[in-house]
Amino acid sequence: MTIRDPLLARGIAAVKAGDKHTARELLTRAAQQNPDSEEAWLWLSAVLDTPQGRLFCLRQVLTLNPANRAAQRGLTALEKAQPAPAVIVQPPAPPLPPPKPHEGLARPDELARRTRFWQVVVACLAVIALGLVGVLAYASLAGSGAAEEEALAAVAPRPTLGPAGTLRPTFTSTPTPTPTSTDTPTPTFTPTCTCTPTPTDTPTPTALPTSRPARQPRPTATLTPQPRPTLPLRLWDGRLNGLGVRLEPAPVTPGQPFWRLVEARWTNEEESGGKHSIYVEVIDEFGRRTISQPVVVRWAGGSQTLPVEDRPPPDWGVNFPMYNTLGSYSVSVGGSPSDRIVGMGLGTAEAPAFTVHTCFYLVFRWVPW
Known about the structure:
By secondary structure, the protein is an alpha+beta fold. Among the domains are: 6-79, Serine Threonine Protein Phosphatase 5, Tetratricopeptide repeat (Alpha Horseshoe); 235-367, Immunoglobulin-like (Sandwich), CATH 2.60.40. It contains 8 helices and 12 strands. A 5-stranded mixed beta sheet has the order 3-5-12-6-9. A hairpin with a 2-residue loop joins strand 7 (294-299) and strand 8. It is elongated and about 115 Å long.
């Protein structure tokens, strides 16, 4: 069979592939665009998490085609399903064995072995201590001897060396002539000092670097941002817009956990069957009902807080009867940040000021991020 609706065809293919998240989004859009599509409602009932949502889809199928056997079987199975509470029986603890005689008391031979062991340990420790004392004494004596030698070396005079590269002077005698008539007992010598200085080597100064090389920057690790998980899909009945019902998102920052409205439906007078209530279900991140979670219903004259009760399906956790017309009631989950849906009440888009019996079905889910 060829399916003309591309959204419906893609949603059915996602169901067969096991991708419930994508299938739920595609089939929801297909049902909103074509509310008279029997196949869209039937396939959407197979991927919803709550039994109330599946019941709504199956009833839509039977409204369009009362002879649909698959919807009849699914509706019957959901209405009869009642989960039985699991009972865990804990076996009694086994009795402790009686203590054995003389348990925990050492025997005389064992005490003797322990005494000898500790005597040997003490003797070994004493030998080690004597060895350490000897090593410390030897080190002290050797240190004092070296200190005396250093002191003597510091006090003893050291030879003074002359300037490097300087020659000693040489003396040259010059005879002086004397007259023959005068007797000079001894000649007179005039010392002449001729010194030739030897040039000394002058070390050439080495130029110091004027600046230090620049340090190379250390490599820094780059963190790759992790993708943030997507929010759960919201199933919104398009007829709510015509009734003036609107959604006020929870005032939270990105990444802050809160209660998200994931399903909002409305039933007219014929679909409600004489009922006139706001039905609320509150589930955790795994799709389980949160017992005793407070739900706050407000109106112009006051408010009422109702806990989620543990009722078997298809009953809802909270059932609040309405008596005022459209625009009177708002609902949110207490205790934590929560989405709020406002503008609910009795009446229709054609007759908003009349107490026509209608119902609202709301599902809030915890988003932990």
